[in-house]
Write the structure tokens for this entry.
Amino acid sequence: MSGLLNGIRHLPGYLDRTRQEALVEVIRAVVAEAPLYVPAMPGTGKPMSVRMTNCGPLGWVTDKERGYRYQPTHPATGGPWPEMPKLLLDIWNDVSGYEKPPEACLVNFYSDDARMGLHQDKDEQDLEAPVVSISLGNSCLFRVGGLNRNDRTLSFKLASGDLVVLGGEGRLCFHGVDRIYPATSTLLKNGGRINLTLRRVRP
Ligand SMILES: O=C(O)CCC(=O)C(=O)O
Ligand SMILES: [Fe+2]
């Protein structure tokens, strides 16, 4: 897409409906084992509007006291994160161009009024690996900028089944979700949007 840093790719319609449904089933099983929880911003403890869980050996978490980090256990249950599903490994192998497998899949659940402020994904030690992001359910307005918070941004819609790959020069670009468009997909019967981000954490 023109105007974006090299290495940022939007793959519209990457997953057909059948694979989207299969992925929702897989995520339901993950959530049954590792329930969605409300993450809190470092320092202020302000709750995020997105609910989260993870699968894979590591999970991204945040709370008031200890801030953004990866850890091998669920902050509420204390148990290990569920295994990374094969379907997600297949997607990573197809689009990442990276030899090592992803270690974390962050599951973000957006209700129709949730959003995510502009940020960089920079809690990973391995910045050679891209971030692979999968959208399911209602469409959203995704915003992408440059390497500085004040750089000009571009916005585009992400629909169910779309992929975004943040790699190369664009690995540390600022990005966020401005809004969800209610009733734009029939995939999730109670509405909302699921975003899955696959990440390699350790080199
Ligand atoms: O929901 C999205 O599309 C983006 C999520 C994201 O940026 C993140 O989890 O770091
Ligand atoms: Fe992000």
Summary: The chain has a mean pLDDT of 97. The helical segments are 17-33, 86-95.
